[in-house]
Amino acid sequence: MHESLFYHQHHCWAQVEDPDQVRIGIDGILAQLVGIIKAVVLPKEGEKIKQGHCFSHLIHERHIMPLISPLSGSVLSVNTDLKNAPHWLAVTPGRVAGF
Q: For residue 77, which of 12, 18, 22, 6 has the smallest C-alpha distance?
């Protein structure tokens, strides 16, 4: 486990970047279970998200998986590179990818 990440029971993590900014991503367990991610549906900048509610979706070969937010807040920015390279969400040891 990465020591600066706070893990949520729904397989997302949160990393405090500064007091007003947190980065969210998926944990290694979910990345391995999902396998090949064909696409990611990202939240929009400025969108308000609520802890315990869906904020994004992973599209897999046979399923659409909702991602549950580990916290509440407003989206400041998204990792738009994930639209063209959703496989970056696959976590390898020592590396994490975030939204």
A: 22
Whole-number Å distance between alpha carbons of 68 and 58: 11
Yes or no: say if 31 and 87 are a contact pair by the CB < 8 Å rule. Answer: no
pLDDT tens string 64-81: 989 999 999 999 999 888
Would you say 34 and 60 are in contact if contact means Cβ atoms under 8 Å apart?
Answer: yes
Spell out the alpha helix ranges (H) of 2-92: 28-34, 81-84
Contact present, 12 and 26 (Cβ < 8 Å): yes
Cα–Cα separations (whole angstroms), residue 89 to 25, 46, 96: 8, 22, 8
Residue 25 contacts residue 40 (beta carbons within 8 Å):
no
For 28, the token pair is 């290694």
Q: 22 φ, ψ to 5°?
A: -130, 135
The per-residue pLDDT for 74 is: 95
Q: How many CB atoms lie within 10 A of CB 86?
A: 20
